[in-house]
Each structure stands twice: as C-alpha cells, then as structure tokens.
Specification:
With about 700 residues, the chain is an alpha+beta fold. Helix content is about 40%, strand content about 15%. The strands form 6 sheets. It has a 5-stranded mixed β-sheet. Strands 9-8-12-10-11 form a 5-stranded mixed β-sheet. Helix 20 packs parallel to helix 24. This is HD domain-containing protein.
Length: about 700
C-alpha cells in the first residue's frame, strides 16, 4: 500500500483539501479509450467480473477506476511501475474469486485516501456509504500519530471494521497478496518483517475466512522469503517428479471409469499441492511418492452425489478408513465442506480424494468472497449454529472482537492476536443444547465456558464431557459433547488455577480481569506462621479479616475461653471436616494446625504416636456465615444408565462445585460414587445429601470415613 508509493510529480498529501472530482475525471478520460467503452486498463477486470456476475453494473467500476487513476497519477511503485497497477491487480484478484461489484469498487479506491488527496467524504458522496466504509476499513493509521503502535492499532481497526463487514478483510488479503508478489524490490530485512506479519496474522485470517486461494499462495511466498533453503529443496523435489509418470493421473482415469459406469455425473481432477503443503507432507511421511504431491478432486452437482461417489470409491478401491472425514455433515469453522478419503492407487500408494459439489468448491477456494452479497437474508435464520448462520460475523471473529475490547494496550493486543491466530487447527465441540462451539485445538472446558457464556462463565462449577464428569481443565477433542454445569450463586468466580487451563485469549483476559477485581487476601499481611501453640496469655488478633477467613479457632486458656491469634489453620483433606463436626487439631511443621474430625482414623494414629492434640473449635458451629468447606461424600446406589449424569445434576442444582469424582466398577449391580465437593456454606450439607438421596437408584449417601447419613 502506501509503503511502496513514490511521488514523481504529485504534491505531498495535504489533509482537508477538497479535490474537484469532475476535473480529475476529465483528466483521466483523456487517452483512456473511446467514449462509451471502458478504459483498456480495466477492461480485463470487467470481463472477469461479468463471468461471475453477468448482470453487474460496470458504470461504477468505470468511475472508480477514473478516480483512482487520476488520483495516483504521477505516483510509482518501488518497482518503477505506475502506482495504478497495484489497485488494478488487487481488484483483478478479487474479481477472479467472484467478489461482487461493491467490493471491486472499494478495492480500486483502497489507497486513494491513504496516499492521495482524496478524502473519505468525497468517496462517500461519489460511491455511497458502503464503499466509504470499506475504504476506511483498509486505510492505515499514520505513524506520525501512533508511532510504534501504528501497525497493531491499524490491524485492530481493520478487525473491528471486519466485524461489521467481512469484505474489509477480503480487500486487505488481496492487497497483501499483490504486495507479497512484488516484494522482491524491497530490502531483505523489510521483506522478512512483512513476511512474518503475513505469516502470523494475515494467513491465519485468510484460513478463518475460508479464502484458500489467497492463503495457499501467501504461504508459498512467505515460505520462499523466511525459509529459502527449505523452499529450494521442496521446489527441486517437485521438479524432480515432473518428468516421471504421474500415478495420480492413472488413478483419476480409473475413478472416472468407475463413476461413469455407476451413472454419476462428476468431474475428476488432479489437484497439485502447493509447496508448503508438500513440505508438510514430507516432514510427516519422510520419503515422498508421486501420489503425495497432489490429491484427486471430484466435483458433483448435489450433496447426495458426494456420498454416492464415496460409496463407489470404497467399493471399487481399497480405502484407508483412518483417512475418512466428513466435513459436509460437520463443516469446518470457516465454511469449508468436503468429504475426505484415501484409496489405494495404481502404485499401491494412498491417493487422497476430496469430494465436494461445485458450490462447495467455490466456497472452499474463495470463502466469504464467494458468498456474493454477504448481507442477504440467511436461508436458515433460526438455525442454532451461530458459526455458520451469519457468515458476515463468524463466531471466532465475534470472540476476537470481545477480548480485543478488554486489551487497550497495543502490545498486549498484538501479542494476544498472534497467539490466538497461531492456533492453526480448531476443534468443534457439541453443546448440550444441540449447538456447537469452535475452539483452537488444545482448548479446555474453561475455554469452552468463556466461548459460550462470556463473563457468565465465572460461575461455572463443573462439566460433563461425553456424559462423564470431567475436570474443568480437561482438554477437549474434536466431536466431544460438552455439558457445562453452572452455579446459581452469582457471587462465585474463577480460581487462579483456571488461568493455567485457559488457552484462548478470551478466557485468559476474562479470568485476569475477574481476579484483578477480586484480589485474594494476602497471607503475608497476617505475619509469619506462629510456633506450635503453648499456654500463655492471649494476643490480640492481627486483624478482623483473619477471623472471618478461618472457620476454625485455636483455643487457649484452661477453660477454653480464648483464641490463639496468628496461627495458620488447615482443614484436613482425609476427613474433610465441616461444622458442626466434632473436631480436634494437631500442630504440624511450620506451626500450621491441621483440623480433623474426631472419628478420623488419623487422629488415633497421631495420639498413638505421642502427638499432643490442640484444642480447636468452630467459630460458627452451625456452619453459617462464610468460608469455603470441602466435603467428601459417598453415594451407594443400584447401577443404571445415566446415574452419574443425574447425580451430577442434583449436586449442581444445589449450587455446589465438584472438585473431583470417582466411580468404582459395579459389583453385584451396585455402584459407589465418591465426590469431593466445595460448599460455600456448611449449612448446605444436610440438604445436599438429601437431594442426592432423592436421585432414583441411590439408596444411601454418607460422609466418607464414617457411616453418618443425612437426616430424613
């Protein structure tokens, strides 16, 4: 864009000066062709555009070209070519992908506001608000105003504009492709810098928007600049196979014969891999064969024909079942649909096959560009899957726009954006309500919660993955079914451990924001841990917050009327005491007092070994008033389907968080579930146990470690 502009006679850009568009138009028309026909320079673009859109109005393209040519007159690129060749090339790229007229109009004008004296208001007056918005979306921010933050803030501006109109990013991708094609005139260090931004940001965006035709060429151009040795090795490998018989052509001939005999109208093509794809296959498989350098592409008319082709191939050829993927029934997050399979070819090697309709092929190549007018009413407005219903606002883009609003710092935004886009593979997770969630590969239940609920995910207390209770840190796989369990308590929030399980920027930023707004008490504020308690006069409590935080007090004095201040107290995990349990304590290393239930077997062992008990008591004997309590419950039940799901729902309905769960194998039609739960209030425990006992099939619920059931 502007980085390649050289003015050889045009005055420097002066903000605010108004240009007479009619004067510019008359100047551009001189020598541009006879009246009534398009200038020769844009005639080829018009023909390509009409091939995709026979009824397109070419007058607006004519006027846009006239303004662009006259505005850029006198400017040259680094290569010495007239600058108008750049917007023409960008427009031709988009026309070949099937972009509609408004997009082509904006692409012709995309550098006028940035590099000439034309203003956005003039563009809007002459071509309408849609074109004005698109041109504004791809116009870079000035370094003089933003300094080092100009690049990240420009991309933030483009992403926000893309959130309102995906055609903004289509123009930017085509602009970058032409600049990458002509990057050889730049200094090597500048080539590398531009190539890295293209690799880290624009290629992933092209993938997410489904514009494979641009993505693959950008990948090869970046590959040649950043990894010249590997690029040369891959190129030589492809050239070495060029003079050999192609096994894929022989397999394609057999496939055509099979489909013709079956009466299926289909086109069968050999589709060559681009260099980066060949390089990846070589790393994955080592030695390459001729079949590895391409794939078969089968194009049919209807969706049903895709499955008919698949059936014939798997019947008449030896299939590699592990290679089968159905992206028609479950499309990718970027609109991509195809059947993938592999069969044994003429040489016995696996020949990969892509099966799709002609429409699917157009979308696979051009993504959102192939949608024509992206603001036409969707065919299925009530469909639950927001990732595909509105192609103008994909789900991944909505999530990206959400977290970018929470990152005003340009460096943090730039780093988070690259991290987000570095995930080159996504998984699709099915929600309990029938919808889907698209997530980067390696995402956990925590990421899914924030993707589905936003800040409402702060109240998530557990998850079931494929019907089984799972920790929130569980990594989700493609095709998993996820049911998130939410707490009705609006005061609940994430723990710091969630940050370790969050992979997506949206989840990390939301967790960090909540933790910053709800800082944990500083243990150091209460002073160093005290020595094991000994008789003596009571000291003043260091601060009232300590008493509110520790549910157990260490007793001092002969009658037990005082409290020992400054002593760290921990509730034992072996017996998980809660009020009003009878408790006793033992001083352990560091001065901490561990509190056990009186019947706990550990108490007997400690006393037998000569350890001196420490008298403790509950500050709130009825368990009300605060403090988080962990309790382990054991449910005895008759084995039946969906028992685990029903028990988990009963627990979640009481607003209790599940810390861990274990299910023993059934024995004589009976099964035991053991849950470790976190209670915000110990007074919840009796009602929780009663709720669990009401689950059909459960005949007893007890505290782990002793046989004490809930009162009826």
């Amino acid at each position: 864009m502007g980085a390649e502009v050289t003015n050889t006679g045009a005055p420097g850009r002066r903000r605010g000066r108004r240009i007479d568009l009619r004067r510019l138009g008359r100047a551009a028309l001189s020598g541009s062709g006879a009246r009534g026909r398009l200038p020769d320079a844009i005639d080829h673009v018009a023909k390509v555009h009409r091939a995709h859109h026979p009824g397109a109005d070419l007058d607006i393209l004519h006027r846009a070209y006239v303004l662009a040519e006259s505005s850029h007159r006198g400017q040259t690129r680094k290569s010495g070519e007239p600058y108008i060749t750049h917007p023409l090339a960008v427009t031709l790229i988009l026309a070949e992908l099937g972009a509609e007229t408004t997009t082509l109009t904006a692409s012709l004008l995309h550098d006028t506001v940035e590099d000439t004296e034309v203003t956005l208001d003039q563009v809007g007056e002459a071509f309408g608000e849609e074109v004005r918005f698109l041109v504004d979306g791809v116009t870079k921010l000035e370094k003089v105003d933003y300094g080092a933050a100009a690049e990240p803030e420009t991309f933030r501006k483009m992403l926000v504009a893309t959130g309102n109109d995906v055609r903004v990013m289509s123009i930017k991708l085509a602009d970058r492709l032409h600049n990458m094609r002509t990057l050889g005139v730049m200094r090597p260090e500048k080539q590398a810098r531009i190539a890295k931004v293209t690799r880290d940001v624009l290629i992933p965006l092209a993938e997410r928007l489904g514009v494979q035709a641009l993505k693959t060429e950008l990948e090869d151009l970046v590959f040649a600049i950043l990894h010249p040795d590997e690029y040369a090795r891959t190129r030589d490998l492809v050239l070495a196979h060029a003079d050999r018989p192609d096994p894929l052509e022989a397999t394609a001939t057999r496939v055509r014969a099979v489909l013709r005999e079956a009466g299926i109208a289909a086109e069968v093509h050999v589709r060559r891999r681009h260099f980066v794809s060949v390089h990846r296959v070589r790393i994955k498989r080592g030695e390459l064969t001729g079949s590895d350098l391409g794939r078969l592409l089968v194009l049919v008319g209807e969706d049903a024909d895709c499955y008919a082709v698949l059936g014939e191939l798997h019947t008449c050829f030896t299939p590699f079942i592990s290679e089968f993927k159905d992206f028609i029934a479950v499309p990718k997050f970027n609109l991509y649909q195809s059947l993938h399979t592999a069969v044994a070819g003429e040489d016995g090697q696996a020949a990969e096959v892509l099966i799709r309709t002609h429409r699917m092929h157009r979308v696979a190549e051009a993504g959102v560009v192939a949608l024509g007018n992206p603001y036409a009413a969707p065919e299925a407005p009530d469909a639950p899957d927001g990732e595909r219903v509105d192609p103008t606002r994909p789900g991944w883009l909505s999530r990206l726009l959400e977290w970018q609003r929470a990152t005003p710092d340009p460096d943090t935004f730039w780093t988070s954006l690259r991290d987000e886009l570095a995930q080159d593979r996504e998984v699709t997770v099915f929600r309990a309500d029938g919808g889907t969630i698209g997530l980067p590969a390696g995402s956990s239940c925590v990421d899914a919660a924030y993707a589905q609920y936003g800040d409402g995910a702060h109240h998530c207390i557990g998850a079931r993955v494929n019907g089984r209770l799972a920790a929130l840190g569980t990594v989700l796989r493609d095709g998993d079914t996820l049911h998130l369990l939410m707490s009705p308590d609006s005061a609940s929030g994430p723990s710091p451990e969630w940050r370790e399980h969050a992979r997506t920027p949206a989840a990390r930023i939301a967790i960090d924001r909540w933790l910053a707004a709800h800082p944990a008490p500083d243990p150091a504020a209460d002073g160093p841990p005290a020595a094991p308690p000994a008789p003596g006069p009571p000291r003043a409590a260091p601060r009232a917050a300590s008493a509110a935080r520790d549910p157990v007090a260490v007793v001092t004095g002969a009658a037990g009327e005082g409290e020992r201040a400054g002593v760290s107290v921990r509730l034992a995990g072996c017996c998980t005491p809660v009020p009003p349990d009878e408790v006793t304590g033992f001083a352990v290393r560091g001065g901490t007092v561990t509190v056990h239930r009186a019947p706990c077997p550990v108490v007997d062992r400690m006393v037998t070994s000569g350890r001196q008990p420490v008298e403790v008591r509950w500050r709130s004997p009825d368990g009300t008033g605060g403090g988080d309590y962990r309790v382990t419950l054991r449910a005895e039940s008759f084995s039946r389907p969906h028992l685990l799901a029903d028990l988990t729902e009963a627990i979640a309905a009481e607003g209790v968080a599940v810390i861990s769960a274990a299910v023993e194998p059934p024995y004589e039609q009976r099964v035991r579930h053991t849950y470790t739960l976190q209670l915000a209030d110990a007074a919840q425990l009796p009602e929780l146990m009663r709720a669990m006992r009401r689950v059909p099939g459960v005949y007893d619920v007890e505290r782990a470690g002793r046989s004490l059931t809930a009162p009826l």
